[in-house]
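Good morning C.,

I know you're traveling, so I'll keep this short. The sequence:
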Amino acid sequence: MLLGKKRKLGREIKEISVGEKLALTEKVEDKDILLYLGLTDDANPLYIQHDYASQTPHKKPIVPSIMLTGMITSAVSKYLPGPGSHIVSQEIHFPKPVYHYGTVHLLLEIVEVNRDDHTVMMTVVGTNEKDEVVMNGKLKVCPPYRIGGMDAEVLDNF
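The tokens, ready to paste straight into the viewer:
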């Protein structure tokens, strides 16, 4: 349960600098795809039907692009800049599909810090097990805002 747990906020914009990088690896499991399909009611046969997908150029079911985008969103929320931040805009390309049980290696990098509008620009590259690029793009991210008097009382419902 998330309610009742105290969460530490990510880094303030003044603590972030150009060139910072985050690398992480995610593996796509059946449970992830089933959760996505249940949540969205997306029954695209390209995502779940082996008989259909085998007749396409992909040859087997692929992972929905929005699930890959979710990996990026999660990395921003958890690590860079961290809890309390959010993506303001994004442009992401998916040049190659990711298949079920695939592994995605993500590399995010801060390329610009704009203190005036409280945002950072980040690049993201995702590669598969064969080191092929499966996604790349840019994100504009708003790091967490500090709220006055950070103590246990302020974060009671956080």
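Safe travels,
E.
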